[in-house]
Specification:
alpha+beta; Diaminopimelate Epimerase, Chain A, domain 1; 17-stranded mixed sheet; globular; 8 helices
Length: 318
């Protein structure tokens, strides 16, 4: 517990809106500081009570190299890594002065290991990027019966569906076009069966953004600079979530898969993602992909966050 934590009654709590250009457009996250003496059960009960997609606990690191240690809980279980809790927790730690960047970054200790976080800018314009865990394709194609039951007769895109692991496990599927992905009404029970069979979070789907030929040259140039190139929808039924408005880990796996299969493609160095509009959000996620000498790629996933609520936790949840 830091001196800042001692100066307020109870433990410090912030609610952050993650991956949003405007406050309210992203994915909510609860962040707790100073709960180093809480038990696993204390943390899980609090996460269940607050009932956000994820709640994190920023703790003293056990590795001297780390800026802090992070534990991440859904309402039903602890998970080793997730992108939006990582970015939101780093934002909160910087916001209250709990940490200071060194050489332009932080180092997060979590269940997935030590993960670098890149800090760009300050204050309201600050953007944070986490280096996603290395990813590998476990299986690709449409021969899995449970996957076929989920996708049905959906028209797919250029890349085949794949089962990808990197910090988390997700099935990844490319849809043929943006409109069909945005309009898709998935069978959530079928996604849950798929998630349970492979011990994965579920299914994340993406589509390349539709061309906007109706725009003039100036508008198209602005869209290329600031607009999204990929649309994503994520269905983490494996942790009891119907649809996620902004998914850092899922986007990291999608990016790694694209970079591996299309190393010379238009998306191979990075792109901007639109996610969450189908459920009333408007998240913006930036993906940066660094090619490596071994032919693989390092993926960074990030964006802006906003502090919505700050206060104190008066008691543990019984």
């Amino acid at each position: 517990m830091t001196e800042n934590d001692r100066n307020i009654p109870g433990l410090r709590f912030l609610q952050i809106d993650v991956f949003a250009e405007r406050a309210g457009g992203g994915n909510p996250l609860g962040v707790v500081f100073g709960a180093d003496d809480w038990s696993d059960a204390d943390m899980q009960r609090f996460a269940a009570w607050i009932n956000l997609v994820e709640t994190t606990f920023v703790l003293a690191p056990s590795d001297a190299r780390a800026s802090y240690r992070l534990r991440i809980f859904t309402p039903v279980k602890e998970i080793p890594f997730a992108g939006h809790p990582t970015i939101g927790s780093a934002h909160a730690a910087l916001e209250i002065g709990r940490v200071v960047p060194h050489d332009g970054g932080l180092l997060q200790e979590c269940g997935a290991g030590l993960l670098p976080i890149r800090v760009e800018g300050e204050g309201a314009s600050r953007r944070l990027y986490v280096q996603a865990p290395a990813a590998r394709v476990l299986h690709s194609g449409t021969d899995d019966a449970l996957l076929r039951a989920v996708l049905g007769d959906t028209r797919l895109g250029a890349l085949p569906p794949a089962f990808v692991e990197g910090g988390r496990r997700w099935w990844v599927a490319e849809f043929a076009d943006e409109a069909s992905l945005r309009a898709w009404k998935p069978d959530h029970a079928a996604i849950l069966a798929l998630a349970r069979a492979g011990d994965s979070l579920g299914l994340c789907c993406f589509a390349r953004a539709s061309a906007r030929e109706e725009k003039n040259a100036v508008a198209r140039a602005a869209d290329a600079k600031n607009g999204y190139k990929v649309v994503v929808r994520a269905f983490p039924a494996g942790v009891g979530i119907v649809e996620d408005p902004a998914s850092g880990a899922a986007n990291g796996l999608i990016a790694a898969y694209i970079a591996q299969r299309e190393p010379q493609g238009t998306l191979a160095r990075g792109y901007r993602v639109s996610q969450g509009r189908e459920m009333g959000h408007d998240a913006t996620i930036d993906v940066s992909i660094d090619a490596r000498a071994d032919g693989d790629a390092t993926v960074w996933v990030g964006g802006r966050s906003h502090t919505i609520i700050e206060g104190a936790i008066k008691t543990r949840v019984a």
